[in-house]
Amino acid sequence: MVKRLYDWVLSWAERPGGVWALFFLAFCESSFFPIPPDLLLIALAVGAPFRAFYFVLVCSVGSLLGGIAGYLIGWQFMGTIGGRIIAFYDLADKADYITALYKHYDAWAIFIAGFTPLPYKLFTISAGAFGVDFFVFVLASAVSRTLRFALLGGLIYWFGPGIKRFIDRYFNLLATVFTLLLVAGFVVIKYLV
């Protein structure tokens, strides 16, 4: 079933509505859907590398709006819809951990979840449930999701379709290394300034 869903997502890259599908997929993934939009973003960018940053923009906006929808689910509907979404992904046991992350790291927790392979939807819903400052949430989400998608789109734009195999194989490692470098940079700035 997962393979069929994967193939279905990629099939949108060859259809006229592929850009709208990318937007919709990015929106849904940020609040409840399991398949990340990265797959379709890569497929669209490989098919038209000169439009890679346009696809990045569409994906980023869709993801940000979906994240806001997830925040609203957590804020207003945690007891009904939000709880069911988190239970569906078997992430209920992570709620205490997420709470601790928000108490200590606030925007960093959102940024890291938005950029890395962590389940971003869990963070969007719980950000609303825990009352994370909405402006902080939107800013951290916009920056992290845009960086994530721009990394993919930029690699395809500059290195061409051959980079797809490299991205597919090492995406989680690349995202983790980038996040660690970014956090290390802020720690250095904090203690040297």
UniProtKB/TrEMBL annotation:
It holds the Pfam family VTT_dom. Keywords: Membrane, Transmembrane, Transmembrane helix. The chain crosses the membrane at residues 20-46, 53-73, 134-159, 171-192. The keyword Membrane applies. GO terms for cellular component: plasma membrane. Residues 40-152 form the VTT domain. PANTHER family: ALKALINE PHOSPHATASE LIKE PROTEIN, DEDA FAMILY PROTEIN. This is VTT domain-containing protein. It comes from Desulforapulum autotrophicum (strain ATCC 43914 / DSM 3382 / VKM B-1955 / HRM2). The lineage of its organism: Bacteria, Pseudomonadati, Thermodesulfobacteriota, Desulfobacteria, Desulfobacterales.
